[in-house]
Structure formats: C-alpha cells, structure tokens
Design brief:
There is one protein chain. The protein is an alpha/beta fold. Helices cover about 45% and strands about 15% of the residues. It has an eight-stranded parallel beta sheet, sandwiched between helices. Strands 9-10 form a two-stranded antiparallel sheet. Helix 2 (about 25-35) packs parallel to helix 4, helix 4 (about 70-80) runs parallel beside helix 5 and helix 5 (about 100-110) packs parallel to helix 6. Mean pLDDT is about 90; it is low at about 300-314.
C-alpha cells in the first residue's frame, strides 16, 4: 500500500537534520519543486507569505485575506494531483470559529494534503510580515487548534497540524511563547511563531516544548526574521523551514525582463529561457507519449456513421 501524504510528512519530521521547503503557487511550480529533489512543498493563501503567490497568481490581488476557502481548496487539489511529494496547506485562521476550523480540516484531508497551517489572526487577516496584525484572545486561539485536532481524530486521519501564532508582532515575544506552549499542550504537531525578530528569539522559541518540531518562516528579500543557513537553522533547533517568496519573486522578475525584451523587438536571451524540448519535458509531454504507447492499436481511423462507431483501415 502506498504511503499516505501525511505519513510521508511525518517520516520527514522524524528524520535527522533540518528540511527545507520552497513554496509553490500552482501545479507547474509544484512540479518544478519536485523535479529539483525537494521532499515536500508548502502552498499557501495568506498564512505564510506564500499568500502573496497564490493570491497574486490566481486573483492578481494582494495577500490581505481576499482569497476564499473554496479558491484555496481548488488550487490545492490541482497542486496535489500534479506531484507525488507531500503538500502542506494554508488553513489561514480556519475561516471562522471552531466549527469552521473543523470543516477546513476535513476538506484539507479530502483534498489529500499532508499537513495544514492554522493561525491566530483575526479576520480579515494577512501576511504576518505586513503591518497592522491583530490576533484573537488566547482562549480562542487555543480552541482553534483543539478543534483541528478533534476534526483529525473524527476523520481517522493523521494530517499534520502546524500551529502558528502572529502574536510576536501583534502583542509581544513572551505572548508568542505562551501561545506556542499552549498549542503544543493541546496536541499541535509542529509550532511556528511568525516574524521572529532575531536569532536569539529563534533559539528561545526552539527551547520550549522540546519534543514538538519547530518551523522557521524565512521571508526572502526583507522580512523580519533573520535568514539563517541550513546548518545554523539546525543548530538553533528548527526541523523544517519555509522559503515563501523565492519562486514567485524570481518568476515576476523573469517575466518583467522577458516583456522588456519583447517590447524592444527581441526574444529573451539564450540561457534565460528553456528550449521548447525542455518545456515539453517539464510539463509532461514525454511521459504522456510513453503512456500513450501502451494503448496503441492498428486502428488508424475512427468514424461515426449512422449513429455507430466503425473503425479500421480503409
């Protein structure tokens, strides 16, 4: 029997070292992550700064909580179907109260996600590295995670619950530590404090609830959290690390450069664009052709005459 996505993610969490995970935003970017040899991938609507990516790619809108639950689930299904590696979903703030959280978890399980983020922001919510973040009271934040754990048990699933708090920027670092410990106490599988401001804060975070894996959210290009290298991340105590904007960021720059070239009457320079053969390989034409051969017949034509199919060589 094939290993479930959640079991595969748990195996990664149990294995030595720190495990790096880029963020994808559609099926093609997910396929590129898998082809590059990564063991898992993040996808997000708003909870991580990957929200910039899916909200931007699907809606052309900023990450301020405008993308809906249904749109996120639809995008997630397309991504999951395109790859074989575990995919971690963004459950935002659960899209409402504890009962909404339970529905969010059930739908993520049905979609085939390996794990899911849940956070403690109010609605409407947005990227944790932007201004004006607000969080719900402690008891409501903890109850969201408890509801998620209950939904998982009721579904007979082992989906990985990643509990995130935005209280570091909204309230204080001490508050974020308290909430993280409380999330661990009710059964969260992985903990994340978003927008930690120093290496010292990162280390202090990793020292609480030592049996629960910690995640680093490394916002590229100007986020609040220091960008540590993999060795440093492991030394501090992190188990997984997200790189939320790399793929979307380089895609934007590459498209801008290509459009500048085209507007000037030129195509992108050699080396900045894959060959047509490379593109066909990446999107799956060659795999399709190989599978198609399995069903080849001597029939060369199929015609519909008088309401019935007739086939054969003429």
């Amino acid at each position: 029997m094939a290993e479930s996505p959640a079991k595969a993610l748990r195996r990664i969490l149990d294995s030595p070292g720190v495990h790096l995970g880029p963020a994808c935003f559609d099926a093609l970017s997910a396929k590129l992550v898998e082809r590059a040899g990564f063991d898992y991938c993040f996808t997000s609507g708003s909870s991580l700064p990957e929200g910039f990516s899916i909200s931007a790619a699907r809606l052309g809108l900023p990450d301020v909580g405008l993308i809906s639950f249904g749109e996120m689930m639809d995008q997630g299904r397309q991504i999951i179907q395109a790859v074989s590696i575990p995919i971690i979903a963004d459950g935002d703030n659960g899209y409402g109260n504890a009962m909404n959280v339970k529905r969010t978890i059930r739908e993520a399980i049905r979609a085939g996600y390996a794990g899911i983020f849940l956070e403690d922001q109010v609605s409407p919510k947005a990227c944790g590295h932007t201004r004006g973040r607000k969080v719900v009271p402690r008891d409501e934040a903890v109850m969201r995670i408890k509801a998620a754990i209950d939904a998982r048990k009721e579904s007979g699933s082992d989906i990985v619950i990643i509990a995130r708090t935005d209280s570091r920027q909204a309230i204080s670092f001490d508050e974020s530590l308290w909430r993280s410990q409380a999330f661990a106490d009710v059964g969260a599988d992985v903990l994340l404090i978003d927008a930690l401001a120093s290496r010292e804060e990162m280390k202090a975070f990793c020292e609480i609830a030592p049996s629960v894996p910690k995640m680093a959210n490394l916002l590229e290009g100007g986020g609040k959290t220091p960008i540590l290298n993999p060795t440093e991340l492991e030394d501090v105590g992190f188990k997984i690390a997200a790189y939320p904007l790399s793929l979307m960021g380089v895609s934007i720059r590459a498209m801008q450069n290509a459009l500048t070239n085209i507007k000037g009457g030129q195509i992108p320079s050699h080396g900045s664009i894959p060959t047509f053969e490379e593109i066909k390989e990446i999107v799956g034409f060659n795999s399709y052709y190989e599978e198609e051969k399995r069903y080849a017949t001597n029939t060369e034509q199929v015609s519909l005459q008088n309401g019935t199919f007739k086939s054969g060589k003429e």
